[in-house]
Amino acid sequence: MAQKKAGGSSRNGRESFSKRLGIKKYNNNFVKKGSIIVKQNGSKFGIGKNVFFSKNFYIQSSIDGIVLINCKKKKTFVEVKNVYC
């Protein structure tokens, strides 16, 4: 006879919900002031002009404008261009 307990239900139920990270607004999309452009853990994407890091390294726009995503020296930067100039 086996002396082990059947381990089905006692080991399940520890799955966490996904964080829904990634780019939320892509190139040439219009964003309003304060809207989230990228959700990330750590600084995978860098910040450029007219954007800032909020909590958990989320990148948000500080003005109304159009999103620009650039790659420089193996690092990706996000910035917002003013539409009204």
From TrEMBL:
Molecular function GO terms recorded: structural constituent of ribosome
Domain of life: Bacteria
Ribonucleoprotein found in the keyword field: yes
Record bears the keyword Ribonucleoprotein: yes
Gene3D superfamilies linked: 2.40.50.100
UniProtKB keywords: Ribonucleoprotein, Ribosomal protein
SUPFAM superfamilies: Ribosomal L27 protein-like
Gene Ontology biological-process annotations: translation
Matching InterPro entries: Ribosomal_bL27
Positions in coiled-coil regions: none
Cellular component per GO, a single term: ribonucleoprotein complex
Region (Disordered): 1-20
Entry's family note: Belongs to the bacterial ribosomal protein bL27 family.
Name this protein carries in UniProt: Large ribosomal subunit protein bL27
Organism: Candidatus Carsonella ruddii
Classification of source organism: Bacteria, Pseudomonadati, Pseudomonadota, Gammaproteobacteria, Oceanospirillales
Gene name as annotated: rpmA
